[in-house]
Amino acid sequence: MAFEIPENLHPDMGPVAWMLGTWRGNGHGAYPTIDSFEYGQELIFAQDGRPFFHYMARSWIIDPETGEKVRDAAIETGFLRCKQDGKGTGTIELVMTHNTGIVEIWVGTAEGGKLEIVTDAVGRTETAKEYTAGKRLYGNVEGDLLYAFDMAAMGQPLQSHLWARLQRA
What we know:
InterPro entries: Calycin, Nb(III)_bact/plant, Nitrobindin, THAP4-like_heme-bd. This protein is mostly beta strands.
């Protein structure tokens, strides 16, 4: 699907402009404290001309045999901000909240169809599970959005947790 940069895109958001729109697809999850699973996901990056994108994501567990939805899973939302250095590289700030009672501040860089971020701060409610750090990598590969999420949680060190390939809707 062809992608056009909106006329009102804030200049600072250039390094992440490729992420705009709705993305859907499937992924895989695993972690030492949970059984591996397959999931479906939808990511939405929206903008209104100001120097940020509104990010929304929802996912659902799918049956690996049938591909059918089993139950709803994670929901997260936040704001992605980018400040360009004038050479095509952007410094990234992302604030994100989760339905599980976790809030995060992420920092990193975006350049050449790739965004890489790590947690700078993590907060959680009393009822949220223990989660201490994360690392996310998003890439534009053959027009698809590929991503990987590493996490440190439940007494485990930072390690692979989720990975997916999403197509522009």
